[in-house]
Amino acid sequence: MSEPDDGRPTEVIAGDLSECDTEAVTEPLATEPHDGQPSPAPDPVQEAEQDEFEGPRRRARRERAERRAAQARATAIEEARREAKRRVHGGAVKEPKPVARGVVRGLKMLLATVVLLIVGLGLGLILYFTPAMSARDIIVTGVGNVTREEVLAAASIRPGTPLLQINTKEVADRVATIRRVAIARVQRQYPSALRITIVERIPLVVKDFPDGPHLFDRDGVDFATGPPPPALPYLDVDNPGPTDPATLAALQVLTALRPEVAGQVGRIAAPSVSSITLTLSDGRVVIWGTTDRAEEKAEKLAALLTQPGQTYDVSSPDLPTVK
């Protein structure tokens, strides 16, 4: 081995002495870097091969360890910052308490409720004070002897009045003051209609007065004056009316009769609640008595009228008689 002029060791590669006795080839030997010289840059190919050799599990453990180490460093830095702040202020620093999740949810619900209330109140005021939903159409149903004009006059509703300003109960009470009206019902029909439904009184008996025949319904209300319908029985009581006991007793008997029997009654007399008599259109007389056991008496009377006779006594339904 010989040393070249530059001071680096060389390796002598000897060839075949028979072919070349005097030639020598020299190559520089790989040597370790001298102290103070930078190490060569890492080879990416070698690192990739090292990662593949490391394996996925070992790599995952290494990455978790690196994350824990980074988190620990961040925690240490934060603790150091707090300690420095405590030293500057000369005491412990109070950390702000985080707002609870339930409090945030409650505040959101409260805000939504307030918004809905404001919107609802605004809509209500608009509908109440503006003609956006007003009574532009008034529908009247159930009229017969009572005319639509009578109902509208009694209702006294100004066209264009907002529906929310109309008191339906007061309107129904005004319509019910018509003598022939038994029931009145008023309903709002949004967006712009008002429906008035009436039920007229049905005459059950008639009584003669100096000014003409008066019609009474099943409640004893005198609701009309004029010619009675055909086959309507006459009522004989002293003071007919909805508060007169004799009138109510006579009407109770009429409503208890079978339809085929009620159609034969021409007159009913009730001097008192305990002495009620019926006079049929053919002249036969029925002694009814009191209103007790009215259903039984009506059933017995329907059977007795099939027998010949002039007077039928059902005042005692246990012992009915025919004379």
TrEMBL record:
In this chain the POTRA domain maps to 133-201
* Family of this protein: Belongs to the FtsQ/DivIB family. FtsQ subfamily.
Signal peptide segment: none
Lineage runs: Bacteria, Bacillati, Actinomycetota, Actinomycetes, Mycobacteriales
The family database entries (Pfam families) matched by this protein are listed as:
FtsQ_DivIB_C, POTRA_1
Q: What is the recorded membrane topology of this protein?
A: Single-pass type II membrane protein
Q: What does this protein do?
A: Essential cell division protein.
The cross-references to InterPro entries, in alphabetical order and at most eight, read: Cell_div_FtsQ/DivIB_C, FtsQ, FtsQ_DivIB, POTRA, POTRA_FtsQ_type
In terms of PROSITE patterns, this protein maps to:
POTRA (PS51779)
**PANTHER family from the UniProt entry:** CELL DIVISION PROTEIN DIVIB, CELL DIVISION PROTEIN FTSQ
Q: Where is this region: Disordered?
A: 1-90
Q: Where in the cell is it found?
A: Cell membrane; Membrane
Among the entry's GO cellular component annotations, what is one?
cell division site
The transmembrane segments are: 109-129
Which processes are annotated in GO (biological process)?
A: cell septum assembly; FtsZ-dependent cytokinesis
Protein name as annotated:
Cell division protein FtsQ
UniProtKB keywords: Cell cycle, Cell division, Cell membrane, Membrane, Transmembrane, Transmembrane helix
